[in-house]
Amino acid sequence: MNPAAATHSLFPQSMLARLHSTAVIAVLVVEQPQQAVHIARALLAGGVAAMELTLRTPAALQCLKAVRSDVPEMIVGAGTIIQPAQVEAVVEAGAAFGVAPGTNPEVIREAIGAGLPFAPGVVTPTDIDQALRAGCHDLKFFPAEPSGGLPMLASIKAPYAHLGVRYIPLGGVTATNLHAWLSDPDVLAVGGSWLARRELIDAAAWDQITKLAAQATEIARTIRQPETAAT
Question: pLDDT (tens digit, 9 = 90+) per residue, 187-219?
């Protein structure tokens, strides 16, 4: 990650550094606040220090508040922000950042006005143009694998490389291709839904979530912290 480019970001530099270091943001659909707290603790135990709670359940905001209260060391953000009114709600819930599947200028304006670090979703050069004009330099590449994977990202990002744009790929990223994604110098972190799948949450398999997080962390360390991984 180019430190100089971080000056263009809506994200605080300290958060960018932590996201780059943890490398994986767990993406979750959670029904109960206590489940969210268990998941956050399990992820941290495996070395993953960031999570995105999607606004796809009625309890999403309560889950976010619970994690903020009970696991303050976790960077917890809100995903699936597709309506401007949702911005105020996630800010009040304590979200550290916001993410959207697409690039909606109205949502971006609300996020910037509220001081919410925000990463809109992009999948075409037009999306990137729109996001940059709106003031966003940290972008969610979604859906990553179905849209063409790393070759597609390499193609669409090339004209914007000199602007210091960073990407968070999500969609089809797994432990199998994690190394390849994180090897791209313009990838800030990846979004990982495989770390806490619905069946693991329903089974309260917190140890398994920790194991998956630890596997992802070990892969990330070979790229982001090679000296540490070698010792």
Answer: 999 999 999 999 999 999 999 999 999 999 999
| C-alpha R_g of the chain | 16
**Residue 1 DSSP SS3:** coil
Dump pLDDT digits (tens) for 83-128. 999 999 999 999 999 999 999 999 999 999 999 999 999 999 999 9
Q: Is 173 left (phi over 0), alpha (psi -120 to 50) or beta?
A: beta
Instruction: Name beta bridge partners: 128.
Output: none
User: Would the pTM of this model clear 0.70, i.e. be above it?
Assistant: yes
Output the DSSP codes for 12-63: -HHHHHHHHHH-EEEEE--S-HHHHHHHHHHHHHTT--EEEEETTSTTHHHH
Question: Residue 204: helix, strand or coil by DSSP?
Answer: coil
The residue segments making up the domain with residue 158 are: 3-230
Question: What is the average per-residue pLDDT within 153-164?
Answer: 96
- Give the distance from CA 182 to its chain's centroid: 13
What gap in Å lies between CA 150 and CA 6, rounded to an integer? 22
- Output the pLDDT for position 229: 55
Amino acid residing at 118? F
Task: Return the number of other C-beta atoms located less than 10 Å from residue 77's C-beta.
Answer: 26
- Structure tokens given for 61: 């905001």
Residues marked active site are found at 52, 140
Say what the pLDDT of residue 225 is: 78
Total domains in the fold of the chain: 1
Close Cβ partners of 68 (under 8 Å, ≥ 6 residues apart): 76, 93, 94
* Residue 76: pLDDT over 50: yes
Give the domain CATH number at 167: 3.20.20.70
